[in-house]
Amino acid sequence: MNYELTTKPHYHVLDGLRGVAALMVLIYHIFECFDYTPVPHGNLAVDFFFVLSGFVIGYAYDDRWQKGLTTGQFIRRRLIRLHPMVVIGVLLGVGAFFLAGSVKWDGTHVATELVMLAMLCALFMIPIAPGAQTDVRGFTEMFPLNGPCWSLFFEYIGNLLYALLLRRLPTKVLAVIASVCGVILTASALQRGYVDQGWSMAEGGFWGGLVRMLFPYTIGMLIARCFKPIKAKNVFWKCSAVILIIGAMPTIGSDESIWMNGLFCALCIVVVFPCIVWIGASERENKPKQVHLCRLLGDISYPLYAIHYPFMYLFYAYIGFHGDPVAISKFSEVWPAALALLIGCPVLAYLLFHFYDKPVRKRLNEGTKGR
Question: Could you give the CA distance from residue 20 to residue 39 in angstroms, rounded to a whole number?
Answer without folding.
Answer: 13
